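Margin note: ligand = flavin mononucleotide.
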Amino acid sequence: MFYEIGKKHGLPHDPWKSCVVPRPIGWISTLSAAGVPNLAPFSFFNGCGDFPPHVMYAPLGRHQDGGFKDSLVNVEATKEFVASMCTSDLREPMNVTSRHVARGVNEFELAGLTPEPSTLVKPPRVKEAPIHIECRYVKTVELPSWSEKYPNFVVFGQIVGIHIRDDVMTDGMVDILKVKPLARLGYLDYTVVDNVFTMPFPDAGTIDRAATKPRVPEPAE
Ligand SMILES: Cc1cc2nc3c(=O)[nH]c(=O)nc-3n(C[C@H](O)[C@H](O)[C@H](O)COP(=O)(O)O)c2cc1C
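Resulting structure:
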């Protein structure tokens, strides 16, 4: 089948979100200007860039109280966020943190999660998660939208530090089978990363990758 975006697809549900899968879930914590922690999951989330690395998340639509979602309002006000990794065993509290609650509600408390102080930024991270990515806000990009009621924003942040819990490391590498990340599919479906295979680059041994990659700058004092 083929359907043109914006026209009738004739299916019981919109298939779009099944067509870019699986999507990692960025569990985004921010602080409001008043210092109240906020936590919400975003599956329009990903890593991008490598020198330095960045992440993005897309807060879409509006908050029930009017204005934009807390995860957008807060990051633009306080310029920092943390993306904690949502894993299979954290699916229920993750879902609770997506509830549309009044501004000023602390979703860490709502979901019974522990806010752990971050190292380089002020928003707390989810202690129960095995990986936390501390970020400084870079910019918001507003994409075209068909309705004022449903704006399409993408927030970019530069990664400044990453915490990885020791028990999910094996021989100095992140052991993803110990992490078991949760990921979003279309409809109401999810998946868990529970298998891994390795495939070398096709030109391994024939090109000097180090020559095409810039050196990481010397660490600042
Ligand atoms: C697994 C999952 C993924 C979600 N992904 C997004 C997303 O990518 N963008 C979005 O705007 N909302 C997404 N939501 C809904 C938000 O989490 C929800 O609107 C939340 O209340 C926003 O909170 P905030 O106003 O505190 O930022 C998702 C919900 C779930 C359960």
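The chain has one domain: 16-212.
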